[in-house]
Amino acid sequence: MTIDFTCQKCEGSFELDTQDLVDGTEKLECPHCGVKAPQAQVDDFIAAFTEMQAQVTALGKRFAVSMAIETDEVDDDDDDDENEDDEDDDELDEDDDDVDEDDDDYVDDEEDSDEP
Length: 116
Description:
two-stranded antiparallel sheet; globular; 47% helix; 9% strand
């Protein structure tokens, strides 16, 4: 079984054999521009895909299963919220000088300016 991908950066299309992806013999990387998915995200995808294969196999005893999944069909607000959270985390990481070393809590610059 293969999965078709289209790179969001260069719009190049490629496909990967699912077993090679699961085995780790193929990496989720665009062959056109080299963009890669984060390894943690790839690991989660492989785990979810492996579970889906197991469930389809179980259903296959009673039903023939055929499916196509398009990214825009599974996009929802939860993904946007996660991406915003990741961006917020990145912003906090960049502002390491705003962290009070003593208690590791975020310090608001405005609070500091109010002190005598």
